[in-house]
Amino acid sequence: MSVSARDIAVWALRDRAGNVTASLRRLLDERDVTPVDRGLARELALGVVRRRGTLEAILKSFLAQPGKKVPSPIHEILLVGLYQILFLDRVPEFAAVNEAVRQASMGERKGRGGFVNGVLRSIIRSISPAETGRGPIAPDVIPVAVETHRRVDRAVFADPKDEPATYLAQAYSLPPALAERWLEQTDGKLPPAIRWAAQSDTSPPLIARVNRLRATVGEAIAALEAEGIETTGHSNGQSIVFAQHLDVTSLGVFRDGWIQPQDPTATGVVTGADVRAGMKVLDFCASPGTKTTHLAERMDNAGEIVALDVSQEKLQPILDNCRRMGVDIVTTAEAKQLGGLSAMDFDLVLVDAPCSNTGVLARRPEARWRFSGRAMSKLVDDQKSLLSAASHFVRPGGQLVYSTCSIEREEDHGMVGFAQNRLGLSLAAEKLTRPGGADDPTRWHDGGYYAIFRRP
């Protein structure tokens, strides 16, 4: 029996463990799916994850019994259909409805097609066509994209004046705890918090750092153009932006080690540090080697880098990327071998710490639904442990570079006091980057933070 991209998306969304990305990958690998359907299945499944809070709020306002839970898989079928209607202008509304009705009428679900048809068609009748512009901050306006909105004939979100955090959570699909936190960071002002949230709801462009050991940005763009692939240079001067998403691993320039997918904010971590040829570097939490290879580039592939991670399975991608990119100064070691390294023996130690990922929600849509105050407290404890362990290996005058993909103060600037007071380090530089550039792919960047400490 043939299956559609929409079927695969619904199956992935029903994953009981909540790991839609892993479920989607497994389902696609198990089936002979065309590249077009693979792309659509991925867009639908991850799009629903990304916009789930918004979709749930809208759906609830159109149900005859809003408090009654819609059973699975009818619930997921409705979400996939509604996502297409609201956020995918390339899919005709009738096609989204017809496919949802088909799915809801199969097997034991027979007879639910009428319910699905009625709900989706009621929503279609109640919303305006897409309008250009950001639109007002209102309970009856749906933010579709950064510069697109749709109006509804009823309030589907909380009133932003009375319940700003609830409105932010619903209209921009955030967990309530994170919406409240972001409003606190903006002193209760919605517009700046909306800017961050709007970017987290955007499908990010494919961006790759150019390996300067192999090519220049101009050479990479020209090589891709020869393959019929359109790219432009990023404003950071080190990366290229693809006009469309594709399997980058299939490209000759990737296989030949000319490029490495990496967001410009992550690229900026190594660029911001004092990295020179001949240094001895220790890279904690190094897999898959994106920053490891960038360090080697900045060192002109001269010196020594020890890359650490928790298992051989984690270390293998580092070796693969180094081989592909022409890097031969990296050796790997499991974290349990840390005790075999000499204390205060490294010019630079990098700690790219596990974090809440609140700066990269556009790229990791499931991360938003894992956010909680308790989870972040555990992460902060782990980050302090990593910093403490890493500090033992920084030579006098050397650097400890700490970075996260978070924009939360506890995980970012909140570490400065710990590093200074408990570890005896001095702060040389720090940078917090908020997500931005959603309206211009050549200026797109995720959110993140880095601090550069020195050992006196």
Automatic annotation (TrEMBL):
One of its GO terms (biological process) is RNA methylation. PROSITE patterns: SAM_MT_RSMB_NOP (PS51686). Keywords: Methyltransferase, RNA-binding, S-adenosyl-L-methionine, Transferase. GO terms for molecular function: RNA binding; RNA methyltransferase activity. InterPro entries: MeTrfase_RsmB-F_NOP2_cat, MeTrfase_RsmB-F_NOP2_dom, NusB-like_sf, NusB_RsmB_TIM44, RCMT, RsmB-like_ferredoxin, SAM-dependent_MTases_sf. Residues 196-456 form the SAM-dependent MTase RsmB/NOP-type domain. This is SAM-dependent MTase RsmB/NOP-type domain-containing protein. It comes from marine sediment metagenome.
